[in-house]
């Protein structure tokens, strides 16, 4: 009974650490009860405890809704989180039979980060680190390690606490090393922010033209006296001085024709004198691209990004895009991404490596109970910004449009399921990227190598033991 309660506790604690609850400090010990409960358990029992923790976390976030399709969208991230908990609990229990102390703690941390990397092969990756997206000083380490560095610290600390509990000692080497590692990361972040050099400021806007047509019973529609008109909202943003205005993903459908001088979007750019980053579908055959286009005040299409990471069944009707890049403009080099691209490290790295000083991102997160997908997506962008020192402007028609600066600070965040014109000033990046831009996911690969070495060693030991018994 006690192991089951520990698994329930871990699920509940980690749920509280994630947005929108944002009790991020809980994440530093949330998984320790699960690791303790898995100790001494058979693989199937340890896996079951991981399932309990993951399901509990998902239930506390997504709850219940009669619309099964919406419920499925809401639970998908927690399905992968459950798989991550299952793998880590099972492997850590097996490893504890041979090792304890620092060796076991490091192995659990490597296994956790390896599991997170494996979720990048699934629809929507999951990271413990997204619980820390508001901890601006801490997350600066991502400019060296990527999001993996923060996740490694979380796994390391949770494992060190679990090890201390299992050894019934509050003074252990793993606890001391975990505390020192956190302190070093915080010191690096403090130094990075102190040495910050702000680039030229740009006034930007995200148009959140929420209509309520797709939310059903999840949210009430806007009041009848609130007029939702993308063109009028864009003119209002331009009147407030916005020089770059971002629209949502595929908001124009297939109706955008940049080659036609009478196209309404290019005409609007000329009339407002603003750059527009718009979402649309092109005429590519046999399947169109999901595009983000940058339209200049002269009504010219300066460049188009084709969405690379397609979400679930989207690949049935959309062609996968090629290598992303940025485009020169009088504002600076502007890069673009579309929605799900920002959940992976590789797209932003490629855009930043091409010299991007700002990334405009048309976005569409499907309406889900309690806005689960919107809340989780919000937590990814500060990491992408810090990893490459490039600011983001994200527009989503359903809510939580964002402006994030190059150091991960949330300059602006629109409400969920409500219309909004988000206008902010944000400092441009220098276009030089960071060590992570150049080195990539090196820390995740190092953790994968360490986990693989453990598995190979365990397998070889089992074979040796079997041969000795037979002889």
Automatic annotation (TrEMBL):
Membrane topology: Multi-pass membrane protein
PROSITE patterns: CN_HYDROLASE
Protein's GO biological process: lipoprotein biosynthetic process
Domain of life: Bacteria
GO cellular component: plasma membrane
Transmembrane intervals: none
Pfam families in alphabetical order: CN_hydrolase, LNT_N
GO molecular function annotations of the record: N-acyltransferase activity
Major localization listed first in the record, in broad terms: membrane
Subcellular location: Cell membrane
Alphabetical keyword list: Acyltransferase, Cell membrane, Membrane, Transferase, Transmembrane, Transmembrane helix
PANTHER family: APOLIPOPROTEIN N-ACYLTRANSFERASE
Descriptive protein name: Uncharacterized protein
